[in-house]
Amino acid sequence: MAHSEVLLASLEILTRWDVLLALLVGSVGGVIIGAIPGVGAAIAIAILLPATFSMEPITGLTLLLGIYASSMYGGAIPAILINTPGSSVNALTTYNGYPMTQRGEAARALALAYGASFVGGVLAIIALITLTPVLAKVAPMFGSREIFFAACLGMILVVVSHRGQTLIALAMLGLGIFLGNIGMDAVTYTQRYSFDQVWLSSGINLIVVVLGLYAISQAFTLLVGRDSKRPPEPAVGGMFRKLFEVFRYPKVLFPSSFFGVVAGIVPGVGEFLSQFFAYSWAQKVSKAPELFGKGAPDGIVASEAANNSVPPAAMIPLLALGIPGEELTAMMLTVFYVHNVVPGPGLFRDQPEFITSLYLSMLILNILVIIFLLYASRFMLKVVAIPDRFLGVIILTLSFIGVYSLRNSFTDCLLAGVFGIFGFILKRLDLPAVPIILGMVLGKIAETKFRSSMARVDSPLEMIERPITAVLFGLILLVLVVHFVGLRRGTPKLEQFDDELHEAEKKRRTDP
Amino acid sequence: MQTDNPSRQGAEFLFIGVLLLFSLWLWSQLGTQVTYVEGQPFFKQPGLWVVIGLAIMTLGCGLHLWQLWRNGATRQGELGHELLIWARSLEFLGWFLVYVWLVPVLGYLPATVLFMLALTLRLGYTEPRLLQASVLVALATVLIFKTFLQAKIPGGALYEYLPSGLRNFFSIYF
Q: For chain A, what is the domain count?
């Protein structure tokens, strides 16, 4: 198919009413969800996931991607205006956003955040458009062995990226791999840890675990806690002109977006490291580094450009190789699976219009969000004012539809509830849940690919004889060596940054 | 790093300890819950990845527990207070399961309105504004997911008592 034909076919897809509606609901809904402290994209995507199974893949993915990408914009609003980050990725924005609000520069701070998010998002989409086809060209060289090592690298990165919590992250990854392997083995037709229970013989559904660990656990957290007091809303207005101020900080804006793109591509890294590098860089090149933490405009630009460039970039390994790097793209992978669409080079060859319409929808989404925010930022503060415990009631009610609509099973709901309690305890103890989800997804991929590759080799050592497997194996060793050297030497700057961010994030929680 | 809240470090020790015991119990079930296929090498056995998962889990829990013990986590914190908070979440699990049980009996719309209203009242919200909001959110949830998105939720047993035309309408849309 010629490029112009692909473009026309993609535009045709994008003008369908269901895709347009998904774009609108995803972008507006994502901003609202992101702005509510205690909800966040992961919970919303977990709840909506089963509902998207009845949609066409492009519609479902547009909706979920819309929520994923636009929630970061929304999260900056309460972070800047009331010192409460909408989600953990916006915690860094409170450092400089709220002091600016206190100085009477709320509109300027919001405009900087929106502008930086927009530029970060668009640059990441450009990276997605340019890098994914390149990776997809390399992807045919990825056989079972290469995918196996890529999945292993992803699992190791997920563990080591939990600085200071690597041991418990390792335990949770193991739990995830175990959960993902319960039930009938598809090759030998033997049962694995099903205890002769029919409901266990088909395995534990990923969505049940995701909903339990993310949505139901958050509902319990809010229901058990207290309603927090929000400060009065500051005046916001005249943002359009201020939106372009972000371009006065090119030395911060573009490198921060670059850090976000790299962090998005590498599995398990995510927003934290991209924000750390972006913020440190911004401090280094700033004309007024002493203002950082007291209302530095370039501080806001660094944190928002770095976090908003992660979602599109996270789609690169997912689309090109079928390897998710974090929990949200892992959830999106299930949309592909349900519709028998296999991400990878075949998708680029057979359905180029699908890929192009996905790119275009992400671009349109960023424009829609900016337009919506210019007019609706004040309204967003009303949404933030929903009492925490009432929000818990809403999340619990919505979680039901996510689990029950899968197969109308009381057992699924009970299991999701049990994972909800488990996730609630993890949240209380500040322990990570992400490795469980990635253990389930990547563990399954690793198992399948390991088996098919072992059928073709005589000894496990033959696995690293190919150039790509050798490189991936080398990377695994390198990551481990760097991690252990870092443990010995210590990374005080990173640890201090982590602690400070943790403190800022705590503002959105209320203890019972 | 363990939880930075000292009052919870004892609770963390207990939680990871229970998880470690659970993983050890799973190890004890290995012989009966995984089939060993004769003639197949170890790396082609169906239970290989279950064993890998369990080994990683046990190792991670064991080392983390040892680290907590070395840091004196067992001597810290009001364990009882934290356990009480965990137990309080069980009440809401109960509410959730009653809601799940009620949906096929009452139907999705009545059960959702009843659940949201009752739980809102249970939380102590008595202002008419929030009670109205709970009914409106319940209605919106049903309209979006069941009426519009056609989520697979069966019609309630109670709908059987409606006149035939209404019965079908309610079963399909509410």
A: 1
Q: How many CB atoms lie within 10 A of CB A93?
A: 31
The pLDDT of residue A128 is above 70? yes
Whether A154 maps to a domain, the answer reads yes
Is residue A110 within 8 angstroms of chain B, CB to CB?
no
State how far the Cα of A87 lies from the Cα of A71, in Å rounded to an integer: 8
Chain B contacts of A502, Cβ < 8 Å? 4
Helix ranges, B41-127 (H): 48-70, 79-106, 108-122
Which residues from A are below 8 Å from B148, CB to CB? none
Specify the DSSP element, H or E, that contains A74: helix A57-81
Report the SS3 class of residue B34: strand
Phi and psi at residue A358, to the nearest 5°: -65, -45
Using the Cβ of B101 and the Cβ atoms of chain A, whether some distance falls under 8 Å is answered with yes
CA distance A114 to A77: 9
Query: A429: closest CA among B87, B3, B74?
Result: B3
Report yes or no on A511 lying in a domain: no
Which chain B residues are Cβ-neighbours of A191 within 8 angstroms? 33, 35
The 3 state secondary structure assigned to A414-469 is: HHHHHHHHHHHHHHHCCCCCHHHHHHHHHHHHHHHHHHHHHCCCCCHHHHHCCHHH
Contact between residue A43 and residue A402 where contact means Cβ atoms under 8 Å apart: no
Residue A42 lies in a domain: yes
Helix (DSSP H) and strand (DSSP E) numbers for chain A: 24, 2
Asked if residues A411 and A131 have their Cβ atoms less than 8 Å apart, the reply is no
Over residues B4-23, mean pLDDT: 84
Report the alpha-carbon distance of residue A47 to residue A210 in Å, rounded.
9
Q: In this structure, what are the phi and psi dihedrals at residue B34, rounded to the nearest 5 degrees? A: -130, 135
How many whole angstroms from its chain centre is CA B44?
34
Mean pLDDT confidence for A38-51: 78
Q: What is the SS3 assignment for A79?
A: helix
- What pLDDT is attached to residue B55? 96
* Average pLDDT taken over every residue of chain B: 87
* Domain of residue A327, residue span: 3-506
* CA distance to A342, B41, B152, B158, per residue, from B106 (Å): 41, 55, 16, 5
Let me know if residue A487 belongs to a domain: yes
* CB under 8 A, 24+ apart: contacts of A238-242: A238/A107, A239/A107, A239/A110, A239/A111, A239/A114, A239/A374, A239/A377, A240/A374, A242/A107, A242/A108, A242/A111, A242/A112
Least Cα distance to A260 among A314, A297, A299 occurs for: A314
Of A188, A413, A425, the CB nearest to B86: A425
Q: Which amino acid is at A28?
A: V
